[in-house]
């Protein structure tokens, strides 16, 4: 939790946090659908499809973190895994996408699996 002095120097604006969270949610939903299309075209079934989703969702979260959060955290002298400046918590970045996009993944996975295998 940032101290009062840190908040006075660089305040956290709630509107920015909401915008960042909404943008991240949209990105996670879009990538989950694209992962579903990929899993369906590849013909993955059962655990292989869910493992595909888990691995690529975590890869997408790592890319978002590495390209957006980590460089600015390091430049500001913050700890490397500190996401509180841009999001409500680390859960939004790392695990939020797993549940946010799961329904879209399953929907597009089954749709494209059925289209390819039919």
Automatic annotation (TrEMBL):
The keyword Cell membrane does not apply. The chain crosses the membrane at residues 50-70, 91-116. Its main location: endoplasmic reticulum. It is a multi-pass membrane protein. It is found in: Endoplasmic reticulum membrane. GO terms for cellular component: EMC complex. It comes from the Eukaryota. Belongs to the EMC6 family. This is ER membrane protein complex subunit 6.
């Amino acid at each position: 939790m940032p101290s009062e002095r840190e908040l006075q120097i660089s305040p956290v604006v709630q509107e920015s946090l909401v915008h960042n969270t909404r943008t991240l949610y949209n990105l996670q939903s879009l990538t989950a659908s694209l992962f579903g299309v990929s899993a369906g075209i590849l013909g993955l079934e059962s655990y292989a499809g869910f493992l595909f989703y888990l691995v690529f969702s975590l890869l997408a979260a790592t890319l978002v973190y590495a390209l957006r959060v980590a460089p600015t955290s390091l430049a500001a002298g913050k700890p490397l895994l500190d996401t509180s400046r841009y999001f409500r918590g680390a859960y939004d970045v790392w695990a939020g996408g797993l549940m946010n996009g799961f329904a879209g993944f399953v929907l597009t996975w089954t749709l494209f699996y059925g289209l390819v295998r039919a």
